[in-house]
Amino acid sequence: IRAVYHSKHEESVAVIANAEQALADLPAAIGSWRSIALMCLGFAHEMKGNVNAAETTFVEAIRLCQRIGNHYSAFVTARSLARTYLTQGKLHLAAATYREALAQATQHGIGQLPHTAHVHINLGRLHYEWNDLEAAAAQLQTGIERYQDQAASWIQIEAYLLLARVRWVQGEVATAEALIGLAEQLAQTSKFEWIKVATASSLVAIRLLFGQDEGAEQWLVQAQPQSTDELNRISEGGRLSPYFC
C-alpha cells in the first residue's frame, strides 16, 4: 500500500524501497498482492530511467497477472512495458506490444475501457514518427474519444498536442490552434503541478515548431520546475525547455 501511495506521488525511491520489501515478505502464493508490488516497482524503475530493470519487472508482472486471471492489470502493465520499448527506441516492438494488449483486452471484454486510450494515443505517436499522418490522426482521435469525461491526465494532454502537430503539418492551422487551447485548458484543471509544468514545456517546443517565438517565451516562464524536484522522465522536459529558446 505504501508503494502504491508513493507511486501516485511520483516518489520513485520510496516506491522501490517499499515494493522490494513487500516482494521479500509476500509468499509466492499471494499472487494478487505480488502483482501490485511488481507493477509499482516497474513503474518506479521506469521513472528513474532504469529501463532494463523496468522491462524485466513488467514482463514478470504481466505473466503473474495472466496466471491469476487479472486481465485488466495485465493490460495496464503491458501498456507500461510498451512504453519502455518506446524509451529505448524499439518502436516496432512497442507497436506490436500495444496491438497485442488491445487484442487481449478485446478478447476479455475490456477493449472499450477509458484506459485503452493510452494505447491508441501511443500508437498515434508511433504513426506520427513513421510519417503516417492519417493513421496517427485516427489513433489519436480514438484515444481522445475514449478519454472523454475522465479527469485531466498527461496522456490526454499529449494527445491534443500531438494531434495539433499533425493538423499543423496537414495545413489545418485553425484546428491545430484549437487543439493547443484544449490542452492548455485541461492542464489548468489538473491538481498535479508537474502536469502544468510538463504542458508548459511542451508548449514551448510546439510554439517554436510553429515559428511562434513570442508564444514560446510566454510559456517558458511557466515551464520552470522547482530546483528541488526529483529528476525523472517527466520533469526532465521542464529542465531542458529553457535551452530550446
Which structural traits does this protein have?
mainly alpha; disordered C terminus; single chain; 74% helix; 245 residues
Explain what the structure shows:
This protein has 245 residues and is mainly α. Helix content is 74%, strand content 0%. The protein has 13 helices and no strands. α5 runs antiparallel to α6, α9 runs antiparallel to α10 and α10 runs antiparallel to α11. The chain is globular. The N and C termini lie far apart (42 Å). The C terminus is likely disordered.
Q: Roughly how much helix do the residues carry, as a percent range?
A: over 70%
| SSE class | mainly alpha
SSE ordering: HHHHHHHHHHHHH
Q: What does the largest sheet look like?
A: none
Radius of gyration: 18 Å
Number of strands: 0
Beta-strand level of the residues, as a percent range? under 5%
Overall pLDDT score:
86
Q: How far apart are the first and last residues' alpha carbons, in Å? A: 42 Å
Query: What are the segments in which pLDDT stays under 50 over at least 5 consecutive residues?
Result: 241-245
In short:
This protein is mainly α and 245 residues long. Helices cover 74% and strands 0% of the residues. The protein is globular.
Secondary-structure map with pairings?
Elements: H1 2-8, H2 12-25, H3 31-47, H4 51-68, H5 71-87, H6 91-107, H7 117-129, H8 133-146, H9 154-169, H10 173-189, H11 193-209, H12 213-220, H13 235-240
Helix pairs in contact: 1-2, 2-3, 3-4, 3-5, 4-5, 5-6, 6-7, 7-8, 7-9, 8-9, 9-10, 9-11, 10-11, 11-12
